[in-house]
Structures are given as structure tokens and as C-alpha cells.
Design brief:
single chain, about 500 residues, alpha+beta, ten-stranded antiparallel β-sheet, 10 strands, about 15% strand, globular, binds NADPH dihydro-nicotinamide-adenine-dinucleotide phosphate, binds protoporphyrin IX containing FE
């Protein structure tokens, strides 16, 4: 087989890719070695900023196949019976940087991009149905507690527990994070949730509220903290290996896709705010409806181009699927596209992985990396309105009006919200073993924080369930005694067991 000839980026054939152009065999290097200069310059530009959160990730392509019939709730073409939609999934941890180890206790991102005939629909969820905060004003502060301390450059358990203990709305998510499901062996063995309440709109223009669920068909599998420590010692890339090799072997991971649907006016009747991201909708009240299967069946050819440059945004909706008044969702509608313009560049949506697989017509104009031709239908139509048959609006896509009322005010999101019942319902689902692991996972994470903060957090656990508070208190005391014994042992024998022999 003949090999293609190596070229520069401008297509000039390269005669020697091993040796720099030098004055004499010992150098120095000549300035005119443009091939060397090009190689070094490109290397200097190989990185884009990592995502400010969810930096470490793993992804693959697949298909959403709809088998159920929810056409009475939504007109979205991708959700009609029999529809098959190509899609991309990117999973991630939240707090770790790009090179973080995979087997860490953290929420997993579950970001999906469906390339539908009506544009891209992105569902940017997590492996948990709820979140730590319910007001977006709290999000940057929350994330700062998960990232590194400005002085020590270390992760700070004090900051984490200080924030959580002062934010009782976090209890539900904290309970999930420190339960078995907080450390899945890989992304194949976890559920995904759209988490927010979204809306469906049907052909008749009726609105329903909806929550999305993706139930793993590989079964739930988790690691204990001890097992994860051993895994990280062996490989830092356990999830990447698991997902990539399973797909290469032809073992395509699948998730059962379900929705919970609430008639629009029920939102005024539920005992909880259905737009509060710290709450689930109990299955007993809104039973999950099976709508189909999501399967991942193709690994990316180039990780950087297709996964690192993938840009997901909750603002990407399609006719028949829309937003809700959830304050967190509203903020995310702004935040993601803004992040992509900074992280990737103005025209990020024209990169192949982000480009819709349907016609795109807009009047946005120039800027760095404007590499695509006019997308308005006609080169004379570069403004709107115009007389040159350029793309124009179509009122048939208008959403039904949404009734909103109320005075503009910074309403306290802590007033009138029950932060304890739903974590209690979860705690009551756990058997004795699950509860004990929850206690010891929490104790391991809380060890060493100031007593005042620990007491405040334990008081919150006690309000969820007296056995929850008592269990964490006992586990923390046990952890403290064990660590003290370890320290005493080290002081007696500072050089460790080998030197002692
Ligand atoms: P149900 O008993 O009908 O639902 C319980 C849900 O909890 C199931 O979806 C199950 O997921 C999930 N679950 C089971 N074990 C765990 C675990 N160790 N960690 C996290 N989730 C688990 O009760 P409700 O709908 O009334 O909900 C009760 C509690 O269950 C909620 O307060 C919430 O904490 C939790 N939950 C509820 C969900 C919902 O949408 N209603 C979704 C996920 C959790 P699976 O089907 O995969 O086994
Ligand atoms: C990533 C902001 C809440 C799931 C990101 C990114 C930002 C961000 C800026 C980086 C995007 C990028 O550079 O590509 C916010 C804000 C939130 C919020 C402002 C709240 C107000 C949430 C919630 C969820 C979530 C509630 C899940 C339900 C994700 C996921 C990613 C992500 C999965 C990674 C997407 C990917 O794989 O590229 N978030 N986020 N975020 N966020 Fe959020």
C-alpha cells in the first residue's frame, strides 16, 4: 500500500520530518525552517481551556429509538413512535480537572445531544435526579467549594461542608452523592436524569411539564471508597477504558428512556414546587412512561475533535420540547452557550460534532473561524428583512403563551420549601448495609473539618431522620479515633514498617 506524502498545513510536501534545518551538523537552527516553526507553533496551540466544571469526560455516539407513543404530549419529531435519532453522549465528573482520576466519588454528568430533523436537542443532565442548590445565584459559590482553595491549592472539605451545612436544600443531593450510587464503576452502570422540569407541547398547542429518565440496562454497579482507591492506584482512566472497550467489543450500552408527564395546571396543586431542582416527582404520583431505548454504538474517531470540542447547552430545544420556570434551568439557558463562545469560539456550532444534521439558516456574520459559507439561502440576503428570499421566521413555531404572575422581588428560596421529606424517603429506601456505607462515606469526607461545621451538618441529617444523624455522628467519632490511632502509630514509628524491621 502506498503511503500519502506528509505535507505542511498548506499542503507543501515535506522531504524530511526527522531532522531540523541547521547550519552545519551541530547547528544552530536556521530561521527559515518553516516546517519546524509550524510544528512548534501548532503544539503551542493544542489546548483549549478545559470546561470550568465537568472537565474530565468520556463520550460516544449512538441512537435514540422511540417505541412508545407520547404523541398526545409532544409534537417533537424525534419523540414520535418509530423515530430513530443519531446522538452523542458525553459523561463526566464535576469537580476534577481534565486529568483527574475517573474512579472518584462525584456526581456524573450525563450530557446528550440529539441530532433531530428540527435542530439539535440537548439534554444536559446528571446521574442524579436532583441538584445541590435550587437558585442559580448559588451555583458559582457552590462550585468554588468543590474546586481548589485559593491559597493551599488543595480541595477543601471545610469549604464543602461549610457551604452544605449552611444550605439545607443540598441534603437530597448530598445523600445521593454519599450513597452507593455516588461512585459508579463506570457510566454504563448508572442512570441518567434530565433533572430539571422541562415542557412538552403537542400539536394542539397544549403544554405539559415533563421529567426525563434514562435507566441503565447494564444494571447498577458501584465501588466502595476502598475499592475505588485500589482502582485509582491501578488506572486513572477506568471509565474511559470501560466505555471505550465495551463499544469496541460490540457490547453497546443501553438505557431505557422514560418520561414523567404532569398536566400544565397540576403545577399549582402539588405539595412541592415541581420546578424546584432539589425535588423529584414521586413515581406514585407521576408514573414513569417508557418511550424507548438509547444505545451507544460508536466510539469517536478523534477524542479532541468530537468530545473535547462537543458543546452541549440546555438552550438547544426543538419544537415540542421547551423550558419551564425552574430558576436553575433559566440560568443554564444563558450559561452554556456563553461558556462555549469563550472555550471554543464564536462559531462553535459549525464544528462537525456540534453542527445540526438539518438545514441551518441564520444571519450571524463574521468572527474568528468563520469557515462556512452564507447560511441565509442567498448571498445578497445578509440582513433581515430582505427582498432576496433569505430565510425568514415562521409563526407556526410559536409556543403557546405561558401565564406568569407575581411582583419582581428577590424571593427567599428557603421559605416554604421542605428540604427534609424527600431525602427522608430516600434514606428509608436504604437497607442496613446501604445506610452504614452512607454513614462511613460521609464520615470519611467530613473528617478533619471544624467541629462547629460538623455539628451543624449532623443536625441537618438528624432533621432528615434521627438514625441518619446518629449514624453519621457515630461514624465520624469512629473515623476520628481511627485516624488518631494511626497518627500515634506513625509518631511511634515515623519511618514506617519497612525501616522498623
Ligand atoms: P419510588 O420507590 O417509586 O422510586 C425510588 C427511586 O429511587 C427509583 O427510581 C430507584 O431507581 C431509586 N433508587 C433506589 N435506590 C437508590 C439509591 N440507593 N440511590 C438513589 N436512588 C435510588 O419512590 P419515589 O418516587 O417516591 O421516590 C423516593 C425517593 O427515591 C426520592 O425522594 C428520591 O430520593 C429517590 N428517587 C426518586 C426518583 C423519582 O424520579 N421519583 C428518581 C431517583 C431517585 P431505580 O429505578 O434505578 O432502581
Ligand atoms: C457543564 C454551568 C447546573 C450538568 C457546565 C459548564 C458550565 C455550566 C459553564 C461548562 C460548559 C462547557 O464549557 O462546555 C452551570 C450553571 C448551572 C449548572 C450556571 C446552574 C445554574 C447544572 C445542572 C446540571 C449540570 C443542574 C445537571 C442536571 C452539566 C453537565 C456539564 C456541565 C453534564 C458537562 C457538559 C459536557 O459534557 O460538555 N455547566 N451548570 N449543570 N453541566 Fe452545568
Amino acid at each position: 500500500m502506498t503511503r500519502p506524502t506528509l505535507t505542511t498545513t498548506a499542503g507543501n510536501p515535506i522531504a524530511d520530518n526527522q531532522n531540523s534545518l541547521t547550519a552545519g551538523p551541530r547547528g544552530p537552527v536556521l530561521m527559515q525552517d518553516y516546517q519546524l516553526l509550524e510544528k512548534l507553533a501548532h503544539q503551542n496551540r493544542e489546548r483549549i481551556p478545559e470546561r470550568v466544571v465537568h472537565a474530565k469526560g468520556w463520550g460516544a455516539f449512538g441512537t435514540l429509538t422511540v417505541t412508545g407513543d407520547i404523541s398526545k404530549y409532544t409534537k417533537a419529531k424525534a419523540l414520535q413512535p418509530g423515530a430513530q435519532t443519531p446522538m452523542l453522549a458525553r459523561f463526566s465528573t464535576v469537580a476534577g480537572e481534565l486529568g483527574a482520576a475517573d474512579a472518584e466519588r462525584d456526581v456524573r454528568g450525563f450530557a446528550l445531544k440529539f441530532y433531530t430533523p428540527e435542530g439539535n436537542w440537548d439534554l444536559v443532565g446528571n446521574n442524579t435526579p436532583v441538584f445541590f442548590v435550587r437558585d442559580p445565584y448559588k451555583f458559582p459559590d457552590f462550585i468554588h467549594t468543590q474546586k481548589r482553595h485559593p491559597k493551599t491549592n488543595l480541595r477543601s472539605p471545610t469549604a464543602m461542608w461549610d457551604f452544605w451545612s449552611l444550605s439545607p436544600e443540598s441534603l437530597h443531593q448530598v445523600t445521593i452523592l454519599f450513597s452507593d450510587r455516588g461512585l459508579p464503576v463506570g457510566v454504563r452502570n448508572m442512570n441518567g436524569y434530565g433533572s430539571h422540569t422541562y415542557s412538552f407541547i403537542n400539536e394542539a398547542g397544549e403544554r405539559f411539564w415533563v421529567k426525563f429518565h434514562f435507566k441503565t440496562l447494564q444494571g447498577h454497579k458501584h465501588w466502595t471508597n476502598g475499592e475505588a482507591t485500589e482502582v485509582v492506584g491501578r488506572t486513572r482512566e477506568s471509565t474511559q477504558e470501560d466505555l471505550f472497550t465495551a463499544i469496541e467489543r460490540g457490547e453497546f450500552p443501553k438505557w431505557k428512556v422514560q418520561v414523567q408527564v404532569m398536566p400544565e395546571l397540576d403545577a399549582e396543586k402539588t405539595s412541592y414546587n415541581p420546578f424546584d431542582l432539589t425535588k423529584v416527582w414521586p413515581h406514585g404520583e407521576y408514573p414513569p412512561i417508557d418511550i424507548g431505548i438509547m444505545e451507544l454504538n460508536r466510539n469517536p474517531e478523534n477524542y479532541f475533535a468530537e468530545i473535547e470540542q462537543a458543546a452541549f447547552s440546555p438552550s438547544n430545544i426543538v419544537p415540542g420540547i421547551s423550558f419551564s420556570p425552574d430558576k436553575m434551568l433559566q440560568a443554564r439557558i444563558f450559561s452554556y452557550a456563553d461558556a462555549h463562545r469563550y472555550r471554543i469560539g464564536t462559531h462553535y456550532e459549525h464544528l462537525p460534532v456540534n453542527a445540526p444534521k438539518c438545514p441551518v439558516h441564520h444571519y450571524h456574520k463574521d468572527g474568528a473561524m468563520r469557515f462556512f459559507p452564507q447560511v441565509t439561502g442567498n448571498t445578497d440576503a445578509y440582513y433581515e428583512p430582505n427582498s432576496f428570499n433569505g430565510a425568514a421566521e415562521d409563526a407556526k413555531y410559536a409556543e403557546p403563551p405561558l401565564q406568569i404572575s407575581g411582583d419582581a422581588e428577590r424571593y427567599s428560596h428557603r421559605i416554604g420549601n421542605d428540604d427534609f421529606s424527600q431525602p427522608r424517603a430516600l434514606f428509608e429506601l436504604f437497607d442496613a448495609g446501604q445506610r452504614q456505607r452512607l454513614f462511613s462515606n460521609l464520615a470519611a469526607a467530613m473528617y478533619g473539618i471544624p467541629q462547629e461545621i460538623a455539628d451543624r451538618q449532623i443536625a441537618l441529617f438528624t432533621k432528615v431522620h434521627p438514625e441518619y444523624g446518629a449514624g453519621v455522628k457515630a461514624a465520624l467519632e469512629h473515623e476520628t479515633r481511627a485516624k488518631a490511632a494511626e497518627t500515634a502509630q506513625q509518631q511511634k514509628n515515623p519511618a514506617g514498617p519497612v525501616a522498623a524491621e
